[in-house]
Design a protein that fits this description.
Length: about 80
């Protein structure tokens, strides 16, 4: 069953491709340890958040079933430029 378009759009804005996430708990997946991190690469029409996990897995997160959080991007220090020493 497809997700409502408004909810799907909201998820895609909240978790765009490249967003880092941290797993708190994944239902029925004992090989997915708490604290595992990964990167979002796709959100399908059901709202499943497909993730490339740091352990090599590509299992999708299911909002409302799996527990996870978005990892904030590190902020660049003011006045620093990439490549500067």
């Amino acid at each position: 069953m497809e997700m409502k378009p408004e909810r799907l759009e909201s998820l895609r804005k909240q978790y765009p491709v490249g967003t880092r996430v941290k797993l708190k708990c994944m239902s029925e997946e004992s090989n997915m340890p708490c604290g595992l991190e990964g990167e979002v690469f796709y959100i399908d029409s059901l709202g499943s958040i497909h993730t490339k996990w740091d352990n090599g897995s590509t299992l999708a997160l299911i909002p409302g079933k799996d527990s996870f959080e978005k990892i904030p991007k590190p902020e660049q220090k003011e006045g620093m430029q990439l490549g500067s020493i």
